[in-house]
Amino acid sequence: MAKWGLFLILLLRFSLGYAEEPLQERELTLDECIQEALKNRLELKISDLDIAQAEHFIQEAISHYYPNLSVTASYIRFNKPSTFEVDVDVSEIAKKVNIPLSVYGLEIPYFLQQEFAVGKRNWYAVAVDLNQSLYTFGRIKEGVKQAKIGHSMALNQKEKRKREIIHEVKKGYSQYLFAKEMLSLMKEAETQAGVIVRMVKIAYEASIPGKEGKETTKLDYLKAKNFQSEVKARLGEVQKNFQLAQLALKMAMGMSPDRPLKVAEIPIDSIPLDLPDWKELKKVMLERNPDLRNLDFGVQFYESKTKAARKEYLPTIGLQAQYVGPEDRFGMRNFWYAGVGIHIPIFNGFLTRARVGQAEAAFLKIKNQKIIAESTMSIRVDHLKETLMELTERIKILREGVEEAKERMQLAADGYSAGITEYDDLLLSQRNELEMKVAYLQSLFLSRMVRLEIEFISGI
Questions:
Q1: How many domains does the chain have?
Q2: What is the mean pLDDT of residues 380-389?
Q3: Count of Cβ atoms closer than 10 Å to residue 25 Cβ
Q4: Separation between Cα atoms, residue 380 and residue 348, nearest integer Å
Q5: What is the mean pLDDT of the segment spanning 296-301?
Q6: DSSP state, residue 324
Q7: Residues 112 and 168 grouped into a single domain
Q8: What is the model's pLDDT at position 4?
Q9: Domain span holding position 287
Q10: Nearest C-alpha neighbor of 370 from the set 292, 304, 448
Q11: Which of 391, 365, 374 is nearest to 444 (CA)?
């Protein structure tokens, strides 16, 4: 029985291990990396909460259209009943009595004060209050409009954050591919340098001292070793950059740094070099750029705020009603009233004028900020255009230069093997080929970064 239990445990362990393996080894495409980031990044969940909050703001603004109905139940004890005095007219009696009393110098007043106690000391009641705005000259309408603009801004902010995450992943993906190709290039260069070191060592050991010609010297051997050490040092730096690029991509995807990651390798030189339609690009940017859209929403918001502030000069009309039962303090049963009132603002210490001024200043400020932002974005696109055109031309030149450097390196190696050329020519060709390939990869990478920046700010 114990053997079967151990067998089941081992079977389960191996099953789980094989189930996890494809997840760790499967290569992710760029689209899959983006989907992973959109699933993992908490910023989008926070944006969803902002949208939900904005929706509640709309509901709050719309609620002012509806009546405000409340019920209050209360018990009140008064320390004493309410009292009031009245003058009782006794003039008719006083006239008749005062005639005989006048003999004795006495007189009864024509009015006597009488005190009455009214109202309960212990009173309980239920009150129902109703308030309904009938006409506010557009105050509620502007409030709803502002809330809806806020909701649109929240949606736009989520879209902006989504685009930022996608942009980060694309940049991280491109950095990863660039670092990977640089690593491959340096490994290839190290291997090539090692081969040449062995070739130079053999030539040096086989050379005849004192023989004139193109024999290999110890200095040539040391130069070859020195170049190999230089390549090894650069390889170590490139390996570190590759690890950092991998970590940056994981962070952009919202992954744990300890989780293994493999991505589908796409040659960086397979990226197309065609240039966009710059005129159409600027037009699309003005329509789709998230920052410009936010500023446009801001203009609409403060325009509505200005209108709402000016409406504070106008009156408001509303309905008020109340029911008190079973009776009021003075015994009146099922007491109620209803009426229509108008509130007309006359003077509030220039408060309304100050609010109008604040709203107008904010409106003009955001409007000018939008103009500046559009101009800045346009200049930025022009700068990226010049940079991309220069990089595109540089890539074409370097692509030809790489082929020429390869051919030169092959000729130098063949010539050195045949004893026709000196080692310095071989070393120079070797170094030139490596630097040309590095410059070519760097130019491709920079071109990709510029294209991603254009894509991001244009909102494509």
A1: 2
A2: 90
A3: 9
A4: 49
A5: 94
A6: E
A7: no
A8: 39
A9: 25-81+119-458
A10: 292
A11: 391
